[in-house]
């Protein structure tokens, strides 16, 4: 009797040990992404001082990495569909470690831009490949919280970046400390590489050359695969979700980047906070961030993707406005707001891994997730640059609030035009 996709999805017993290793391997990989990605906003003031940059150039360096991550996501997802998830993950982490280290050697704005662009390419390739692998191991009714748990590692990586920021700036001037931070960033990359060497692709998912050896009964449904993943994603059956998913990813991430990229500089320049005071605010955001990932995934599984995204994006916009646009002198109030903003930023992000993998069939899942998330990220990359440019005329805080508000309205429109995918069984 032929085994159905649903049965394969619900028969995890032989893969329990491997599933556990996959969970921790993807968790550490995403933690590394959080570590290196969040280092840059913290290091930005030192980089600006070292090279004599404007805020516009600082925003451009951020946007360049995000734009290249869009290309990396599409390429990484396509390679994962063709050659398997694990092989591509190992390649990605090697490239990530290399260009993180080289960022520390930058001698001018041009070399900084080059290394950040190449690092961004591998950063972009990380997400769709790891998300596809983890989604294929997760039970349908728990996929939201499983992917959210993996993404909670971002907060842990962010905490590592904040700790690196504190320690390096305690002993070194701004213009040198940022180099130490990026040098330290090589270490977690090597740890993630060692962990991933023991992984294997999930046997019941037909990707890569091994798919050709599958029994005839299993390969019969694979006719769309011969069309090619890109043609499949833009076929009449999937075109709508591909386009809407990409627009949703773009506006949602633009809102997130508007807050995460510029908050450290905003606190230092417009609130006049010291390094230690800025780090204190970031610590509260990190705690809220971790809680948002862990608890947000549960709500995504309980009430569905549409309603959960609606609640969390509205919460991000409302509390982001209170934090950035209505200064209050009370320390406890501002720290609680920082925690709440961190919670909502993470909670809305916690459902994306599940959503973007549930939208597509197995033979195009990595490519589809790469396009919706990372092309969306590439469009969203203009958000930090736009804010850096607008800050000169309306102030950094107001520029952030304006971008977040517009992006929130568009994000909610796009999620309600997309299908509800909660509980969908993956092939």
UniProtKB/TrEMBL annotation:
The entry's keywords: Membrane, Transmembrane, Transmembrane helix
Matches recorded under Pfam families: MFS_1 (PF07690)
Domain of life the protein comes from: Bacteria
Main location: membrane
Domain Major facilitator superfamily (MFS) profile: 22-422
Lineage, top ranks: Bacteria, Bacillati, Actinomycetota, Actinomycetes, Kitasatosporales
Localization (cell): Cell membrane
Keyword Transmembrane helix: yes
Transmembrane regions: 88-109, 121-139, 146-165, 177-195, 241-263, 275-295, 307-326, 332-350, 371-392, 398-418
Gene Ontology MF annotations: carboxylic acid transmembrane transporter activity
Protein's name according to its UniProt entry: MFS transporter
Membrane topology (UniProt): Multi-pass membrane protein
GO cellular component: plasma membrane
């Amino acid at each position: 009797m032929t085994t159905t996709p649903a049965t394969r999805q619900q028969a995890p017993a032989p893969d329990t040990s491997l599933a556990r290793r996959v969970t921790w391997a993807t968790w550490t990989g995403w933690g590394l992404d959080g570590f290196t990605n969040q280092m840059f906003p913290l290091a930005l003031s030192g980089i600006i001082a070292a090279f004599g940059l404007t805020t516009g150039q600082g925003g451009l360096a951020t946007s360049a990495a995000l734009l290249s991550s869009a290309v990396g996501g599409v390429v990484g997802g396509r390679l994962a569909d063709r050659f398997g998830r694990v092989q591509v993950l190992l390649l990605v982490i090697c490239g990530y470690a290399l260009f993180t280290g080289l960022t520390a050697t930058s001698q001018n704005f041009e070399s900084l831009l080059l290394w950040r662009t190449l690092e961004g390419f591998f950063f972009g390739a990380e997400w769709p490949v790891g998300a596809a692998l983890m989604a294929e191991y997760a039970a349908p009714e728990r996929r939201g919280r499983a992917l959210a748990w993996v993404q909670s590692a971002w907060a842990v990586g962010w905490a590592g970046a904040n700790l690196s920021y504190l320690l390096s700036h305690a002993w070194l001037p701004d213009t040198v400390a940022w180099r130490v931070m990026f040098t330290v960033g090589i270490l977690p990359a090597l740890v993630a590489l060692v962990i991933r060497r023991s992984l294997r692709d999930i046997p019941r998912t037909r990707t890569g050359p091994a798919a050709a050896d599958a029994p005839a009964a299993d390969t019969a449904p694979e006719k769309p695969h011969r069309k090619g993943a890109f043609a499949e994603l833009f076929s009449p059956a999937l075109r709508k979700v591909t386009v809407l998913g990409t627009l949703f990813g773009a506006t949602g991430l633009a809102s997130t980047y508007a807050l995460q990229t510029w908050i450290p500089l905003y606190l230092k320049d417009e609130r006049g906070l010291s390094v230690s005071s800025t780090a204190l605010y970031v610590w509260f955001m990190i705690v809220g961030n971790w809680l948002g990932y862990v608890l947000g995934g549960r709500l995504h599984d309980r009430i569905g993707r549409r309603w959960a995204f609606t609640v969390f994006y509205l919460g991000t916009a409302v509390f982001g406005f209170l934090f950035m646009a209505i200064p209050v002198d009370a320390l406890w109030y501002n720290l609680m707001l920082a925690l709440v903003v961190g919670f909502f930023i993470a909670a809305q992000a916690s459902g994306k891994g599940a959503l973007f993998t549930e939208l597509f069939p197995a033979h195009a899942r990595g490519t589809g997730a790469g396009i919706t998330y990372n092309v969306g990220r590439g469009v969203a990359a203009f958000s930090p640059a736009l804010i850096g440019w607008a800050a000169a005329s309306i102030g950094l805080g107001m520029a952030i609030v304006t971008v977040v508000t517009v992006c929130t309205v568009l994000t909610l429109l796009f999620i309600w035009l997309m299908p509800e995918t909660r509980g969908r069984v993956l092939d």
